[in-house]
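Study both lines:
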Amino acid sequence: MSGFEFESLEKTLEKYIPENELTEVKRILFGNPTKHLELHSSAEIVASERDFELQGHAFQSAPEQLRASRRVRVGLIQNRTVLPTDAPILDQISAAHSRIAELVEVAAMCDVNIVCFQETWTMPFAFCTREKEPWSEFAESAEDGPTTRFCQELAKKYNMVIVSPILEREALHNTLWNTAVVISNSGQVLGKTRKNHIPRVGDFNESTYYMEGNTGHKVFQTQFGKIAVNICYGRHHPLNWLMYSMNGAEIIFNPSATVGALSEPMWSIEARNAAIANHCYTCAINRVGTEHFKNEFTSGDGKKAHHDFGHFYGSSYVSAPDGSRSPGLSRTRDGLLVVELDLNMNRQISDKWSFKMTGRYAEYASELAKVVSEDFKPNIVKE
């Protein structure tokens, strides 16, 4: 069975692990089990008609005496590019808009409050090609570009916060950025945040297209909680997650585009570990499918040139601060993952484990200040 046909780890476990052992295996691998979330039957019918996977799960948190539950539904959308990568640009963007509109409509039927799309969702992930054209033409204004206006209409129509990661063109200096636009459920643009860390590994040649972000670690206060967006490669940097958390994020979204040969063994660990370490929820979103490009490109590793980046393996999931995680979406299909969570769990787990209270941040800040100085000498004890 090839990696492309392998649909999900969860389904393989269910197929081959004896039923009397499966519950314990899942507990060890995934933490406390999530509850199946009943979704409207009409949503399931529409999802089937539109050929995408629909899952619903809920995390369980303890009731409190002094605080009411703060239940929020998040929606994670993963999808393949709709048209070939050499189709006219406007056609590709329009097709992406139409496909996302189909999934967001079902998210609204499932009472989703906050939805997040995958990294640079309006375009192929073409940064492997090293070609500037035509890919730079996909860049648009974060404030009033056609994709932002499209998402504003959806947000207002469905009373839903939308996180829309795009390739941004900043008109003032004609600079490109990898940006997530956060749109309030009122339809207003709440703000934007840019990708802090740019990869220089394998075919991820992104540093030739856009700059490291300059927006810091913004947290957005929405009607449904305080959210942040840690774009793609930032998930490999623990301090990046930490700073969003220190700024008060209750949910951190990680919209991504990553391929199996490079990162898949790390995928199920990093966002989950961040949820544990930072007493918050994390949402990992990855695109799906294989994108083919007309012109060959090499990976700079001595191997033959090729026409595709590799298989984007989807597998989007949500992690809770207690170390549990939802089942993931398929490795091969478009999908919408709906997860209900109680934001009260963040403080409950913080009270239990006290990672922040015992963090010794002042000590680390002092040590890191020394590390980045030009005259730094490592603290190594020798005989």
Remarks:
- The CA atoms of residues 90 and 138 lie 9 Å apart.
